[in-house]
Amino acid sequence: xxxxxxxxxxxxxxxxxxxxxxxxxxxxxxxxxxxxxxxxxxxxxxxxxxxxxxxxxxxxxxxxxxxxxxxxxxxxxxxxxxxxxxxxxxxxxxxxxxxxxxxxxxxxxxxxxxxxxxxxxxxxxxxxxxxxxxxxxxxxxxxxxxxxxxxxxxxxxxxxxxxxxxxxxxxxxxxxxxxxxxxxxxxxxxxxxxxxxxxxxxxxxxxxxxxxxxxxxxxxxxxxxxxxxxxxxxxxxxxxxxxxxxxxxxxxxxxxxxxxxxxxxxxxxxxxxxxxxxxxxxxxxxxxxxxxxxxxxxxxxxxxxxxxxxxxxxxxxx
Length: 318
Hints:
The chain is an alpha/beta fold. Helices cover 35% and strands 21% of the residues.
């Protein structure tokens, strides 16, 4: 299958790269990719990287050369078979790259000008057990494209995404920074219009350097932080009101606690809170250092590590 070259269109992703290792743990990532591409008619490239283990100048005498050649031949066969599951999509291509896996995927995403890169994780252990070992962590760190990490078993609900609409519940965790705002813009361009968008901020009581006698109580500080969080969330909701579909419900949630834990808890306890199940978390990154400079500090990295639902990380250019 040959890849095609089309210009980008504003709205849903037009070029999607699925990086896979063909394992059962990759199934959920493949299902999310299929659902998103069906919705947007995106061009899909299914990519796999064969680790370049051969570095000897005596290539033809090196037993590793034969092993590498066998691995490459097997990967080509697997890739062709694997891509067959996406046969109902209008544009599907495959790409086999050789070398350090994470670098191969990042370079492939750059070459293809991918709008979205999809990788899978092995479930509860998150980034510590990514499908490609440490590869997916490095992909998020270095890839300029947004990256959707999908835990094993977190396939999209049948009703969440469909060509005619859907019931997608997206939670956007924000710290109200410009980088976070850019991440939300990017997510709204990439994803199908959600039926519900929850704007989430996790706050902590501020530390104030004031004379002890004048120091407010912890209760006062938390109340102050909560009011500030709710005020900013409401302002953001009002700004988004005119940009989203009329039937999109915008909700806000201000929570006190340790951000990674609070974000994941919110996603996992939505039903207990009387809310629709959370399908996707959105977090932002900024700068070239990727996870080293996440919008929420180390919050996004730890959220991706422990989240049982897919997480879309979107990097700002700033």
